[in-house]
Amino acid sequence: MRRAGLVLLAALALAACREEAGPKAEPLLPDPLELATRDCTRTGGRMVKAGIANAMTCIHDTTDSGKQCRTSGDCEGDCLARSGTCSPVRPLFGCNEILMNDGRRATLCRD
Amino acid sequence: MQKLPLGRTGLQVSELCLGTMTWGSQNTEAEGHDQMDMALDHGVNFLDTAEMYPTNPVRAQTVGRTEEIVGSWLASRKRRDDWIIATKITGIGHDQVRDGAPITAAALRSCVEQSLRRLNTDVIDLYQLHWPNRGSYHFRRNWSFDPTAQDRAATIAHMQDVLAEAGKLVTEGKIRAFGLSNESAWGTAQWLRLADLNGWPRVASVQNEYSLLCRHFDTDMAELCHNEDVTLLAFSPLAAGLLSGKYAGDVTPDNTRRMATPDLGGRITPQVFPAVAAYLGVAADHGLDPCQMALAFTRSRAVPTIPIIGATTLAQLRTNLGAAGMVLSDEVLADIAATRRQHPMPF
User: For the whole model, what pTM was predicted?
Assistant: First the structure.
């Protein structure tokens, strides 16, 4: 009886050792959204739902928002046509009238 | 003119906000433009308008006219970047505006587009809901307020729809920030909770009535705005002109707002003139202009508060602009506190 108890104890100890020394559970693949969020916030952006797909997307507030512009080349984002001012965020989703790099007016739709 | 952060938006706005609601009714387009010029010269960069302005009264044929006046200034001066522009979508039940329709996600988008056209711009810096669909205790409705007809599930679903659409409008560059008006602590907390949970635009500001004579904000709303970094935009900081003293003795001078709205939106009560007289007395005792004292009082509050200054003449506007940077002494604040105890809720 005593011998059987020792065997059981030894078996349990072995099992415990095997558990400790055994291969660790395979790490989960990094969550793409988590990675994208990390990259986004590292560059000063924020994740928002955007576009027709309503997918999480990184947008950045521009530092020249509201400044006068003649072409989109004057802006971090786009040059908005009606007011001739730089857009508040980049990229700009939806449809907006913008002044392109050559100064021509165009409707830009980004989904 | 000090600049203050507007909520957590990153926008820096002047400590006084220019009101516009008389442009197109009591004031002409040229007078509105003169007010914008003068305010800008004094360092103001923040103005507030609305879909339904001008008032009073609101008329179907003049809806949006005030925004057009702001828009014609922007088109002629080409100085869009000098202003942080706030406007609002009208709430439910005003027959003169969109037949009294409620605020919905679709209405939000349509009204933003219309306001952008009238304002001659591409971006609204702060887009506010003028009053909530579910009703409100503001505008003297506190005396008979009954929230028991409200449907929580419907309200939350509505908030989710509107916030999701507001989020899209931000990503499209059409609005920069989201704000409320005539809201309660419960309502504001729900908007904030849903925004934080879903990554939708946070409430940047609440535009509620606040003045020496109207202190609803000072308890639950003050606590909420402090903890959530929501800026109070104080409308009617002179209590529709009462605190200037021009109506003292229950008179109605020519060319004043009281000609069109004799009870000043429920603010004329038996208690109000004694309260006005007491505050005029405090100003006189300390050698202060009563309007400047009233505006400086709103700025003295611990929770960030920006008064919206309205004027029908440049002389009035100049006086109001003089409140910028004014710091009330401890003695003045003590007298104001004592006066409030004597006249706690004049309307």
Answer: 0.88
Judge whether B182 is closer than 8 Å to chain A, CB to CB.
no
**Which residues in chain B are closer than 8 Å to A47, comparing Cβ atoms?**
199
Segments making up each domain of chain A, as ranges: 32-110
Confidence of residue A6 (pLDDT cuts 50, 70, 90): very low
Q: What is the ipTM of this complex?
A: 0.77
- pLDDT computed for residue B246 by the predictor: 87
Per CB-CB distance under 8 Å, the chain A contacts of B74 are: 83
Which domains are present in chain B?
3-241+301-327 (3.20.20.100)
Taking CB atoms and an 8 Å limit, are A68 and B78 in contact across chains? yes
- Predicted local confidence at residue A96, as pLDDT: 92
Q: Which of B74, B122, B176 sits opposite A80 (nearest CB)?
A: B122
Residue ranges of chain B with per-residue pLDDT less than 50: none
* Interchain contact, B171 vs A59, CB within 8 Å: yes
Three-state DSSP string of chain B: CCEEECCCCCCEEECCEEECCCECCCECHHHHHHHHHHHHHCCCCEEECCCCCCCCCCCHHHCCHHHHHHHHHHHHHCCHHHCEEEEEECCCCCCCCHHHCCCCHHHHHHHHHHHHHHHCCCCEEEEEECCCCCCCCCCCHHHHCCHHHCCHHHHHHHHHHHHHHHHHHHHCCCEEEEEEECCCHHHHHHHHHHHHHHCCCCEEEEEEECECCECHHHCHHHHHHHHHCCEEEEECCCCCCHHHCCCCCCCCCCCCHHHHCCCCCCCCCCCHHHHHHHHHHHHHHCCCCHHHHHHHHHHCCCCCEEEEECCCCHHHHHHHHCCCCCCCCHHHHHHHHHHHHHCCCCC
Q: Is A78 on the interface with B (CB under 8 A)?
A: yes
Which pLDDT belongs to residue B256? 85
